[in-house]
Design brief:
- The structure is a single chain.
- By secondary structure, the chain is an alpha+beta fold.
- It has five helices and five strands.
- It has helices at about 35-50, 60-65, 90-95, 100-105, 115-130, and strands spanning about 1-5, 10-15, 25-30, 70-75, 85-90.
- Strands 1, 2, 3, 4 and 5 form a five-stranded mixed sheet that branches.
- β2 and β3 (about 25-30) form a beta hairpin.
- α1 crosses α3 (about 90-95) and α1 (about 35-50) crosses α5.
- The longest helix is centred in the first third of the chain and has 18 residues, at about 35-50.
């Protein structure tokens, strides 16, 4: 879904995770779909290096991880179901890029000094939630 910014085009993406029904998040950024999918794959693969037992869900991305890259969680969205390029399932995105994991993780443009710390905190929270059950 395209949204006009003052000087630049902003895109709004719908993030879902096939294994977590109801986890739907909307994020806006000036990245095009190809760049954004690569960023999601990068964060996913970095997350697997930190903890391979728990997957990251859309809420984790929208609230804690993507803001590191200037993306904003949004709720004011008039979603058009025809916007396939902007509707991304995190599981299928990971599968699409898994053969290029090392190449993607080597992309310096996605390196962020706080990413590993934030990922560690996200996984600690997930593990704490799992202990309740």
């Amino acid at each position: 879904m395209n949204m006009k910014g003052e000087d630049k085009m902003e895109n709004t993406y719908k993030l879902t995770f096939v294994h977590c029904e109801g986890d739907v998040q909307y994020v806006s950024t000036n990245m095009n779909p190809d760049q954004f999918e690569l960023l999601l794959a990068y964060i996913t693969f970095e997350g697997e290096d930190v903890n391979q037992y728990y997957p990251l869900i859309a809420l984790d991305f929208a609230e804690q991880l993507l803001p590191l890259y200037g993306c904003k969680k949004t709720t004011d969205v008039d979603w058009n179901e025809d916007d396939d390029d902007f509707d991304i399932d995190l599981h299928y995105n990971r599968e699409r890029y898994c053969g290029r994991a090392y190449e993607i993780q080597a992309m310096k443009k996605f390196h962020h000094p706080e990413l590993k710390n934030v990922l560690t905190k996200v996984f600690e929270k997930i593990e704490d939630e799992q202990k309740k059950y």
